[in-house]
Amino acid sequence: MHESHIDATQPKPVLYAQLVQELQGLIAGEPDFIANLANSAALIYHSLSDLNWAGFYLLKDGELVVGPFQGKPACVRIAIGKGVCGAAAAQRTTQLVRNVHEFAGHIACDSASNSEIVVPMIRNGELLGVLDLDSPKLARFDEQDREGLEKFVAALLAAT
């Protein structure tokens, strides 16, 4: 069993540096993408505060399909361009939504979610899926989260 050593009270840049380091140690030498996504979702969910969902949607046959996650049961399929996850996939850019109720077309898989950040996973120009984090707290995510989570996804993709 893996013991996490992340100090969630640190400033966000330090926290995310610790998270990336922890991720690299956790998935080192493991080639299975799904296993690494599962451990990555658990690492994020148990390391970051104020989350009610953390996980991945994977691109399959032209749509996003739920992958490994932590939290309540989720929407299984999301069309490209629909909701925050679909927008991140279509635009291939991180979507930082401080209030999901103001996001046109938001898909409410969990009515407790109030803010969301979605980072696309792109390797060699190919969209593999997205990392999706939801929070019951309004404005939970900011630019430091964007930067940290983009580095996290880059480290995950580099190791798998």
Automatic annotation (TrEMBL):
Pfam families attached to this UniProt entry: GAF
Per UniProt, residues of the GAF domain are 47-158
- InterPro entries in the cross-refs: GAF (IPR003018), GAF-like_dom_sf (IPR029016), Phosphatase_reg/MetRdx (IPR051330)
SUPFAM superfamilies the record matches: GAF domain-like (SSF55781)
- Per its UniProt entry, which superkingdom is the organism in? Bacteria
Q: Which family does it belong to?
A: Belongs to the free Met sulfoxide reductase family.
Q: Output this protein's name.
A: GAF domain-containing protein
